[in-house]
Design brief:
The chain is an alpha/beta fold and 311 residues long. It contains 10 helices and 12 strands. Helix 1 packs across helix 10 and helix 3 crosses helix 5.
Length: 311
C-alpha cells in the first residue's frame, strides 16, 4: 500500500520538529515539504498557514487542509471543492499564548505604558495617578475560544469585562452584547477595547473612525485579530487627536510592513510582529497525525469545520 503523503508548507525551522515527530511517531505516514512540482503537489493532505495560490489547481488530489491556527478566515475555503475538509488547529498552548498576550496588552494600556515610553524617550519623569482596575472597563470583541479565555483572564485582575459578538453568547461573570443593535452600548462602556474577531466582509475595516468615536475619550485599543480589521489611518488620527490614548497591535494590513510604516514609528503604539498566539510544532504535528489516521479509517477528522454553516 502506498504510504500516505502529507505536504507541509510553513516555517522550515518549525518544520524540522514536524519531520522528527513524524519519523519517530508516525512511520506509516510521510511528511514532505511543499514544492509546486513533484510529489508534494499530489499529496491528499496539506498543512499550512498560507496555502499555495489557486489551491484547487495546485493540489488536485487534496482531501484535507489542516490550518496552522485556530482562525481560518484567511483561507480560500470557498474556492475549494466541497469534499475537501478544512481542519482548525486546536492547541491549548495556542489559547494560553493568546491569553498571555491580551493580559499583557491590557495591563500595558491600563498602566499607561505608551505614555511612559514617550516620556522616557524625552527624558521626562511624569508620574500619573494609578487608576484601579475596578474603574477601567475592558471590552472583548469576539467570543470564540480565544475571546472567552481572554475575557476570563482579564476579569481575574479585577477589571469589569464585557464581550461582544455577532450572535448572542453567554459567559459567566461577563456582560455580553450581540449584533449591531447592541454594539453602541458595548462600545460606550469600554475603556480598553480588544479585537479578537474573525475577518469577514462584515468585520473588515470595523476598527475605524466611527467606531473610535463611540468609545469613551482616551480609550485604548488592542488588535490581535487580523490586520484587515483596522483602518490604519483612522487609528493614527484618533491617537494624534486624543480620541485614543494608546494602542497595542499584533497584526497589520501588510506583513511584514515597510521599515518606515507610520504605525511602527508612532510613540503611542506598541507593535509586535504577529506573535500573540502560535501553535507549538510538536503538539500541532501530533494533532495532524491523529486527524490523518482518523480520515484513513473512514472516521470524521477532529476539529473539521462545518463548511455548510459558516464554520
Amino acid at each position: 500500500m502506498t504510504t500516505p503523503l502529507i505536504a507541509y508548507k510553513s516555517d522550515p525551522v518549525r518544520g524540522a520538529v514536524w519531520h522528527d515527530i513524524f519519523a519517530r511517531e508516525a512511520p506509516d505516514l510521510r511528511l514532505v515539504d511543499w514544492t509546486p512540482e513533484g510529489e508534494a503537489a499530489q499529496a491528499p493532505y496539506l498543512v499550512a498557514w498560507t496555502p499555495p495560490p489557486d489551491l484547487a489547481r495546485a493540489m488536485p488530489r487534496l482531501e484535507a487542509l489542516f490550518c496552522l491556527g485556530a482562525g481560518i478566515d484567511h483561507l480560500p475555503v470557498h474556492d475549494l471543492p466541497h469534499e475537501v475538509q478544512v481542519v482548525r488547529m486546536v492547541d491549548p498552548n495556542l489559547t494560553a499564548s493568546m491569553v498571555e498576550y491580551v493580559v499583557m496588552a491590557v495591563l500595558a494600556l491600563h498602566r499607561d505604558l505608551p505614555f511612559y515610553r514617550t516620556e522616557q524617550a524625552a527624558g521626562r519623569w511624569s508620574p500619573k495617578p494609578v487608576r484601579p482596575a475596578a474603574n477601567r472597563r475592558v471590552g472583548i470583541m469576539g467570543l470564540g475560544v480565544l475571546g472567552r479565555a481572554a475575557a476570563r483572564a482579564v476579569a481575574g485582575f479585577g477589571f469589569p469585562v464585557g464581550g461582544w459578538s455577532a450572535s448572542p453568547k453567554s459567559l459567566d461573570g461577563i456582560e455580553t452584547f450581540a449584533g449591531e443593535d447592541e454594539l453602541g452600548a458595548f462600545l460606550s462602556g469600554t475603556d480598553i477595547l480588544v479585537c479578537l474577531l474573525p475577518l469577514t466582509p462584515a468585520t473588515r475595516g470595523l476598527l475605524n473612525r466611527d467606531l473610535f468615536a463611540r468609545l469613551p475619550a482616551g480609550a485604548g485599543l488592542v488588535n490581535a485579530g487580523r490586520g484587515g480589521h483596522l483602518v490604519e489611518g483612522d487609528l493614527l488620527a484618533a491617537l494624534d487627536g486624543g480620541r485614543l490614548s494608546g494602542a497595542v497591535l499584533d497584526v497589520l494590513a501588510t506583513e511584514p510592513p515597510a521599515a518606515d510604516h507610520p504605525l511602527l514609528a508612532h510613540p503611542l503604539i506598541m507593535a509586535t510582529p504577529h506573535v500573540a498566539s502560535a501553535t507549538q510544532p510538536a503538539g500541532a504535528a501530533r494533532q495532524v497525525i491523529r486527524g490523518v489516521r482518523a480520515h484513513l479509517r473512514g472516521e470524521p477528522i477532529p476539529h473539521a469545520v462545518d463548511r455548510a454553516h459558516g464554520y
